[in-house]
């Protein structure tokens, strides 16, 4: 499993864009982790799945609520990662009205999640491979803090906990 002090593994995540911009077309766009974290301070948090109760009612909304305070601590971006495709992540972001506060990134095949050692096998429950619930502070691609919730818990990866560490 990834640890504090280690560099994030490179992988390609996908983000659904509702509006075209310089270098990004409408629809799914690739995001190379190594390039996207270079020179930036980023909060990365992961959830087991889009549209799930705790994730939709508490986890993502907490980062939206604390966005201004997190940005005031020098954070460049906040990423939400889930083992879902970018279309689902885009729809979930619209549903939660994240706007430009949280980047909703799909890791559809769990490549990044597996490289981190954060996969959670729920195939016996017909949910496939998912991500464990965690949050990390990343600076220039290096993990500076990592908080992993126990299975079924939501105690340390919330926005308020990360804000205290910043």
TrEMBL record:
One of its GO terms (molecular function) is thioredoxin peroxidase activity. SUPFAM superfamilies: Thioredoxin-like. Residues 2-166 form the Thioredoxin domain. It comes from Polynucleobacter meluiroseus. One of its GO terms (biological process) is cell redox homeostasis. Pfam families: Redoxin. It catalyses: a hydroperoxide + 2 glutathione = an alcohol + glutathione disulfide + H2O. One of its GO terms (cellular component) is cytoplasm. The keyword Oxidoreductase applies. Thiol-specific peroxidase that catalyzes the reduction of hydrogen peroxide and organic hydroperoxides to water and alcohols, respectively. Plays a role in cell protection against oxidative stress by detoxifying peroxides. Signal peptide: none annotated. Keywords: Antioxidant, Oxidoreductase, Peroxidase, Redox-active center. Belongs to the peroxiredoxin family. Prx5 subfamily. It is an enzyme of class 1 (oxidoreductase). This is Glutathione-dependent peroxiredoxin.
